[in-house]
Amino acid sequence: MTHVTVPPVLPGPLSAAIFEDEARFLAPGTQSVALFSRLSFERGEGAVLYDADGNRYIDLLAGVAVASVGYGHPRYVAALQAQLARLHVGSFATSQRAELVRLLAEITPGDLNRTQFYSSGAEAVEAALRLAKSATGKQEVIGFWGGFHGKTGGVLPILGSSFKHALGPLMPGAYLTPYAHCHRCDFALKWPSCEWHCVDFLRRKIELETTHNVAAIVVEPIQGTAGNIVPPPGYLRALRQVADEVGALLICDEMITGFGRTGRMFAIEHEPVLPDIITVGKGFGGGFPMSGVIACEPIALAKPWANLSCSSFS
User: Fold this and answer.
1) Separation between Cα atoms, residue 73 and residue 85, nearest integer Å
2) Over the stretch 250-272, which tens digit does the pLDDT of each residue have?
3) Residue-wise pLDDT tens digits, 113-170
4) Rounded Cα gap, residues 309 and 314, in angstroms
5) C-alpha atoms less than 13 angstroms from C-alpha of 194 in its C-beta half-sphere
6) Phi-psi region for residue 7, left (φ > 0), alpha (ψ -120 to 50) or beta?
7) How far is CA 282 from CA 101, 114, 169, 174, 231, in A?
8) 247: Cβ–Cβ under 8 A, 6 or more apart, which residues?
9) Are the C-beta atoms of 206 and 212 separated by less than 8 Å?
10) What residue ranges in 119-222 does DSSP mark as E strands?
């Protein structure tokens, strides 16, 4: 006798009911995969998620690139529990924060040894742009087609996607250029016979479109939201050269690629390139809302970015 396993109907009744109950009050704008699946999850363990109906799933999304250590990791849970029981808010120094910034200074490439913390990826990228403007005294920034750096107003101008449609006007001073997407080259050329045409195009764009006031070139070492686009070897080195030519800083957005996700601690380390600023998030907090800007000391001390924060009470 042949036994046939009948797959469960998804979403199950409990998942569907929870999804519908939440949808009555939840504003639109959540991840599309959640809307398409209509699943409701109860718990996670390692790389496995369990829905309200008891079905198991392997989370190949890793919580949209956040759950780098998986779900319910004992050390992660213990650390969060211990810290919540002691202190969970405040701007003052703690031994834990001192240990963290010291560790970051040790593992980041080159002399990137100063960190400032934020809550979201977009917030960190916006802070990196403010830092670049402070350090260079310039105002313009360059992003890339296919690039994604968050959803807030300060990063919308450097999003190379349709997400920003109908959300204008955008802040001025931002320009977009094609990324080295060699499998679907925007210039219909082939690498390496193209001889870095996209990089030369960037040079021409800066020459003809900007006011020669470029503070930063902001790039993902591997474009994540665009579909995990890996540029050819030498591309990031070429962008470093362009940034140096125009007196701009090179900002590497390592939200998705940072902390070992590409085989190196940071994706930029696959090339002999040292960026001026690295932004981190997602897997950095492993689920805790935490991001950061990491820069070398001379840049991190630039004002007004480095001015002391102050609060006034009346």
Assistant:
1) 18
2) 999 999 999 999 999 999 999 99
3) 999 999 999 999 999 999 999 999 999 999 999 999 999 999 999 999 999 999 999 9
4) 17
5) 20
6) beta
7) 17, 19, 29, 25, 22
8) 136, 138, 214
9) yes
10) 140-144, 174-177, 214-219
CA 231-235-236 angle, 5° bins: 100
Give me 112's structure tokens: 């990137």
Q: Which of 35, 47, 46 is nearest to 11 (CA)?
A: 35
Q: Given the DSSP bridges, would you call strands 249-253 and 277-280 parallel, antiparallel or unpaired?
A: parallel
176 DSSP β-pair partners: 143
Pair 243, 250: CB distance under 8 Å: yes
Q: What is the model's pLDDT at position 314?
A: 44
User: Per the structure block, which two tokens stand in for 125?
Assistant: 């990228």
Beta pairing class for 41-45 and 249-253:
unpaired
Q: Cβ distance 219 to 252 under 8 Å?
A: yes
